[in-house]
Structure formats: C-alpha cells, structure tokens
C-alpha cells in the first residue's frame, strides 16, 4: 500500500488544492456528523420533560468554556419558553438546531465529495495520459513478447478498476477515521464505560475482515491478467476475421473466448464472495456491539441512574456513527485490494525501462550528406542470429536492393536502420555517426518508410497524409498524391482528400492503400527512403501502378529497397543477395545474371510464376 501511494504522489501533487479542500471539508463533515447526534439530546429532553432548568442568562468566559456556555444558553432559552407554557416554541428551537446541524453535515459532505471527485478524475486522467505516452515511446521490441490486449486492458480496465476501488481510499482516508475520532471523543464525555465497549469492537472486526480478504489481491491480479487475454482474443479475432470465417474457425475462437470468459467468471465469483462477506461480518459485529451497549447502557440508566435516558439515546446514535464508517472502511479494504492489483499492473508499464532511450548527449541529425554504412553487424531477436557479420554501404542518391528468400534477414535491416531494434554487434553509421549517438526523432525525421502492409488509420485521407508532415498545405498533399500515382482515384471520390479510409484503410483496394502510404512518405520528403517489400502483396496491375509511384518517389533520394519481386529492382545501383543472414552475392542486375549464381536462380524461379 505504501509503495503504491508513494508512486501516486507525483500525480496527486498536481491536484493538491483539491486534497487540502477535501481534508478541510471532511474535517467539518466529521465534526458535524458527531454533533448531529449530540443535537438530539435537547430535543429529547424537551419531549420527555428532562430539560435542565436555567433561570439566569449564562456569562461568557472564553473559548475554554464554550461547551458549558452553549449548553446553558440553550437551556436558558428553552426553560424560558417552557416556563411561559410555550412548549411548542421550545420544541421548534431544538428541532431547528437538529435540522441545521444535519444540513451543515451534508453540505460539507457534498463539498468534500466534489473535491475528491476532481482529485480522483484528475489523477486517473493524468495516469492514463502518462501511460499512453509510455506505451507509444517504448521500443517495438517491448511488444514483440506481449499481447496487445494485455496492454489495452491495463490502460482501460486496470485504470478503471483503480477508480472504482483503490481510489475509494481517498474518500475514506480522512472522513471516516475523523468521524470515528470525533464520535469517540464525544462518547467519552458522556460515558467512558460505554465507550470502552465500542472500542473493543473495532480491532476484532478489523482482524476478522483482514483474515477474509487476505487472498483478494492475488485473485484480482489473476482476473486482470485473464481480462487482458480476453481482450487479445477479441482483438485478434476482429483483425483476422476473414481468415476465421474462410477456415470456418469460428468454433475454435469461440472456444478460446469461452474458456477465458469462464476463467474470469470463476475468479470474479471468488472475489465477489469475499467482497460480499464484508457487509454481513461488520453488520453482525455491529449488532453484537449494539446489543451489549443496550444491555449495559440500560443498566446505567434504569438501575444505577448514572446517565439520563435521553443522553443514552444520543450515545447510541454516536455508536451508530462509529459503526457506519467502520463498516465502510471494512468494505473499502476489500475493494482496495482489488485496486492494488490493478495499480501494480499500471505502474509496471509506467516504470518499464526504455532499453533504447536516447543518450543524454545524443546528437541532432539534421542533414544527410554522404552515406549509410552497415558495419559487420550481427543481430538476433531471441536465440538464433538473424544477421551475421553483415556489411553494406549505401551512398547518397543511390538505390540498394536487398533480395533473398523469406527469413534471410532483409526486413531486419529496415528495423535496424530505423532503430526499431538495436544491433547486438557491429554498428550502423550515417555520415560516419553511429545512429545510437543520434536522437531517435532526428534519425527518423530523415527516413521515410513504406511497409508491405499498408498501415492506414481510421481517419480521412488528408489526416493520414498529414502524419508525415503536419503543416503541409492542400496543394502539397495533391502533389504528393500525384507522385504516388494516387490522385487519379482520390479526385474521383465524393469528398476527395476528406474521404474516410475506414478501419485499416479497408474502404480501398490493396494497391490504392499502398499508393496512399507512398504519398504519405512523399509528403514527408525525407532524404532516405526504406521500402520494405512494398509491392509483394499486390496484383500485377496494382504492382505496375505502385512501381511507377515508387520510381517517382526514389528520384534523387537514397533508397534501401527490400524486394520480393525481383522485376521491381532491376534498375537498382546495387543488389545485395542474402541467405540466412549473410551476403552471398552483390552487384548490379546485369553482373549478377552473368555470375549465374543465387540471384540468377531466383530470377529464373520468378519468371515461371
């Protein structure tokens, strides 16, 4: 608990004014909650004709005598009305005091809740913003071993769980304990013997409730992890819906979903059973305490005549005022355990170290002048090396193509040059500067990336293009679309560049999506372009259109082209043939054909496709 509160403090400090106001109003709420029951005593005295007769107006002796002065002044006024035979007016006065006290109690309670609401919602929004920023900033490698659904569950479900459970403590940490303290203080002034009975109840209740709730946190953690898996199943099902349907695999995915949902059901029931025990346990203990109070208090009133019956009734009200917050605290302690499990998962992401963070003295890479050198690099995603002692130079203005069978490490080069991953051995330099010594932002500002999968976002064509250059004008966008061979179909759309592309760009064909992706890269206008199998998923007609767009884009640019279809890279200045992470051949299209080696065999194989 201390650890989580310590982690939350930086977020809470942003809203400290609401913390102070919440404490202030809760202090007043707790005070008037206790005074509300004391205010019942004069009313009961009038009703049962037990009012202490005061015939002389009391004299003010300072704040130290405030209680006696207030009590005597009230009795003096009430006695006067009773002596004049105006009992109704005396009753109105004492009832007005009761109403006013309860009114102030509820007013301060409302104001306290308002400020804790601002605090809670503000902290959770700040948490959610920081978490999203962290998720966006973490390297691609962080997600290679994680389910997207689990991350989504943390930023959505777990933060909501913190709001619904853990943050209840912000409401209770001041109000309920102070209510107990003020009530006990007033109870001791009435009868210390009766107060001891109430005090005995609190530790017993706390012990029993803590025993019941001991395993709640572990069950909550399991439930939240399973919720992440459930979201992943839904996300994967929707992403691959065509495959699911075409293979009639609905029963498999339904079974996976059902298994996960049933697991959450079992865990939720376990958590719920223990949560539901909080109320009955504290209720039974409360009734037991009240029963003992009635027995012992009745003896003090009826037999020993130590306290008045009207005072005893008010004392019972104060006892109830203690039992209610004690019960609320016991219920909250269960919910807090759920919230602690959620908070652990949230802070695990927030405290995740960025293994590829920029150095403190990282350089700003501003202009590309000479070349890109890949120097004897080796790299592995997990255990086996994907690249081994790989070296190549890409000179400014030249096009270098990487070819080879699937799994030969071609796309890995794109991942390493853009620093989605860092090399294990060797180095990648641009103009002689190691890319690890540059800020990632300045490096990527100089690079345009077009991937095999045309990644478009569910927004307008315009906003998808502006990702590359937020300040671009409409004429700039149209020019980029023309270079990418996309303006011909965009201008025919009813809303032109304001047309929504749909989820993942599904309102357009594969070739159209790819040309929009190329237009985005053209609009960015970077000096270095990386094309990762940009035409491999297209039909022949679309490939021709996209290839023209690519050639337009690569003019006067330095390009690294990862190619599956060798017909698209025949004009490259250098073709590097890869096999199992190593270079087996390199040269121009003509020289490699004459060498009659691996490249020639790949060309011959594709000529029969």
UniProtKB/TrEMBL annotation:
It is found in: Cell membrane. Residues 372-605 form the ABC transporter domain. Keywords: ATP-binding, Membrane, Nucleotide-binding, Transmembrane, Transmembrane helix. InterPro entries: AAA+_ATPase (IPR003593), ABC1_TM_dom (IPR011527), ABC1_TM_sf (IPR036640), ABC_transporter-like_ATP-bd (IPR003439), ABC_transporter-like_CS (IPR017871), P-loop_NTPase (IPR027417), Type_1_exporter (IPR039421). Gene3D superfamilies: ABC transporter type 1, transmembrane domain (1.20.1560.10), P-loop containing nucleotide triphosphate hydrolases (3.40.50.300). It comes from the Bacteria. One of its GO terms (molecular function) is ATP binding. Residues 20-338 form the ABC transmembrane type-1 domain. PROSITE patterns: ABC_TM1F, ABC_TRANSPORTER_1, ABC_TRANSPORTER_2. It is a multi-pass membrane protein. The chain crosses the membrane at residues 20-41, 89-111, 166-188, 194-212, 277-296, 302-323. Pfam families: ABC_membrane, ABC_tran. This is ABC transporter ATP-binding protein. It comes from Bizionia sediminis.
């Amino acid at each position: 608990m201390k650890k989580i509160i310590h982690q939350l403090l930086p977020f809470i400090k942003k809203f400290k004014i609401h913390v102070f106001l919440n404490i202030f109003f809760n202090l007043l709420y707790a005070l008037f909650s206790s005074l509300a029951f004391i205010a019942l005593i004069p009313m009961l005295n009038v009703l049962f004709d037990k009012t202490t007769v005061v015939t002389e107006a009391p004299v003010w002796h300072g704040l130290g005598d405030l209680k006696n002065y207030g009590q005597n002044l009230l009795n003096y006024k009430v006695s006067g009305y009773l002596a004049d035979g105006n009992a109704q007016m005396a009753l109105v006065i004492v009832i007005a005091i009761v109403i006013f006290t309860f009114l102030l109690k509820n007013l301060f309670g409302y104001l306290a809740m308002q400020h804790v609401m601002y605090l809670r919602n503000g902290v959770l929004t700040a948490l959610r913003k920081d978490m999203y920023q962290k998720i966006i900033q973490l390297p691609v490698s962080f997600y290679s071993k994680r389910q997207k659904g689990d991350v989504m569950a943390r930023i959505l479900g777990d933060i909501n769980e913190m709001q619904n459970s853990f943050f209840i403590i912000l409401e209770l940490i001041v109000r309920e304990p102070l209510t107990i303290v003020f009530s006990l203080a007033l109870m001791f002034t009435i009868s210390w013997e009766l107060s001891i009975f109430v005090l005995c109840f609190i530790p017993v209740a706390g012990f029993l409730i803590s025993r019941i709730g001991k395993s709640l946190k572990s069950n909550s953690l399991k439930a939240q992890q399973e919720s992440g898996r459930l979201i992943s199943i839904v996300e994967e099902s929707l992403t691959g819906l065509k495959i699911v349907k075409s293979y009639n695999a609905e029963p498999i995915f339904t079974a996976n979903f059902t298994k996960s949902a049933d697991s959450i059901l079992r865990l939720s029931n376990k958590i719920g059973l223990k949560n539901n025990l909080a109320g009955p346990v504290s209720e039974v203990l409360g009734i037991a305490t009240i029963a003992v109070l009635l027995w012992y208090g009745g003896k003090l009133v009826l037999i020993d005549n130590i306290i008045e019956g009207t005072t005893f009734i008010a004392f019972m009200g104060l006892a109830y005022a203690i039992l209610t917050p004690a019960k609320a605290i016991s219920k909250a302690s269960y919910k807090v355990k759920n919230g602690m499990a959620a908070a652990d998962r949230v802070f695990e992401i927030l405290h995740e170290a960025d293994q590829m963070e920029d150095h403190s003295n990282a350089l700003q890479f501003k202009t590309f002048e000479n070349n890109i050198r890949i120097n004897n690099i080796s790299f592995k995603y997990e255990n086996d090396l994907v690249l081994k002692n790989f070296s190549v130079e890409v000179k400014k203005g030249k096009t270098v193509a990487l070819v080879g069978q699937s799994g030969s490490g071609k796309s890995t080069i794109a991942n390493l040059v853009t620093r989605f991953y860092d090399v294990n051995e060797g180095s990648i330099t641009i103009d002689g500067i190691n890319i690890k010594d540059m800020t990632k932002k300045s490096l990527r500002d100089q690079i345009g990336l077009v991937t095999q999968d045309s990644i478009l976002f569910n927004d307008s064509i315009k906003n998808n293009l502006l990702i590359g250059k937020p300040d671009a004008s409409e004429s700039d966008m149209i020019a980029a679309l023309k270079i990418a061979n996309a303006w011909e179909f965009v201008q025919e759309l009813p809303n032109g560049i304001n047309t929504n592309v749909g989820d993942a760009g599904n309102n357009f064909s594969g070739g159209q999506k790819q040309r929009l992706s190329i237009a985005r890269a053209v609009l960015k206008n970077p000096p270095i372009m990386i094309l990762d199998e940009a035409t491999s998923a297209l039909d022949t007609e679309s490939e021709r259109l996209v290839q023209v767009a690519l050639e337009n884009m690569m003019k006067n640019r330095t390009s690294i082209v990862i190619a599956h279809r060798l017909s698209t890279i025949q004009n490259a200045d250098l073709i590097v043939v890869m096999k199992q992470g190593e270079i087996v051949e390199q040269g121009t299209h003509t020289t490699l054909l004459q060498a009659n080696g691996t490249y020639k065999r790949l060309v011959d194989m594709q000529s029969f496709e």
